Amino acid sequence: MLKLIDLIRMAGVDLGNYKIHCAVDNDRSEWRPLEQYYCGTFEIGQSQQSQKNFECDHVVSLINLSNSRRWLYVGVYAVHGVKRAEDGDGYVYDLRQLPNLEHLDGRTIVHFKKDFRTSYLVGKNYETELIVSEIKPEKMSIADFPGFNSVLLSYDMLKSIVRQDNPSWRSALSNVSGVYVISDVASGLQYVGSAYGGVGLWQRWSDYAVTGHGGNKELRSLLREKGADYANNFQFSILEVCDINASPGYVRAREGHWKKVLLSREFGYNQN
């Protein structure tokens, strides 16, 4: 069986005293490691720790793939120091990814039967258990469009999809009109909107990716009050898909229906 640590050492890397970081989604925080990896912000999230978890020479980083036994290896990081966070809450590590491992980083799927909660493991205790099950030809990136009933995007993910002009997402969203909902995960309030004509939902959501408010009066006012970064609390989903050739009047009527269902006028961000 091929072991991940053996592959790393074969590339000439001396890990020394190292830890294995098993990054998993945490429902109690905003830490979504796989999503952040897709968006290019995983390293920032990993460097911010509530405790001194990386008192070692190197960190071997794994991200869980929605299965307790499948992990994506994303790199080896040298620890160059640590300091208190500016707000005094936790620590910020200076982690620098090692070169010469591009043939493995983001491409290697590891089988690791981790049936305990600890996320920061002493490397030598588990290195024989990290078994390579697959090396993909390219780095993992944003998954293909999952289907209209399964769309649930954070603002960061939406920006990444639009920035990359992801063909799967663009093709699906460009060919339909429909009604969508933006949920504010900080307050629970919702905004119901619709898209029709042109290139459908893709163009409408592209506008949100650029500005955060998409030109909506209510959301523009919200971001003016709370700051542009508040858009990071927005979550996008599709309520109903309509034919791309559906009349604007029909789509607006469906939008009105969903506003009534979700009470987004009375208890949300919709004003009309």
Give a concise summary.
With 272 residues, the protein is of the alpha+beta class.
How would you describe this structure to a colleague?
This protein has 272 residues and is of the alpha+beta class. It is 29% helix and 28% strand. The protein has helices at 4-10, 33-39, 42-47, 123-126, 155-163, 167-174, 200-211, 217-226, 248-262; strands at residues 18-23, 48-49, 58-64, 70-84, 91-97, 108-111, 120-122, 131-135, 153-154, 176-184, 190-195, 234-243. Strands 1, 2, 3, 4, 5, 6, 7 and 8 form an eight-stranded mixed β-sheet that branches. The longest helix has 15 residues, at 248-262. 34% of the residues are buried.
Low-confidence stretches: none
| Helix count, DSSP H or I runs of 4 or more residues | 9
Whole-number radius of gyration? 22 Å
Oligomer status: single chain
Task: Please bin the fraction of helical residues.
Answer: 25-40%
Structural class determined from secondary elements = alpha+beta
- Output the helix-strand order: HEHHEEEEEEHEEHHEEHHEH
Mean pLDDT: 93
Q: What general outline do the C-alpha atoms trace?
A: elongated
Task: State the separation between the terminal residues, measured CA to CA.
Answer: 62 Å
Number of strands: 12
Strand content: 25-35%
Largest sheet: number of strands, sense, barrel closure: 8 strands, mixed
List keywords for this structure.
272 residues, alpha+beta, 8-stranded mixed sheet, 4-stranded antiparallel sheet, 12 strands, 29% helix, elongated
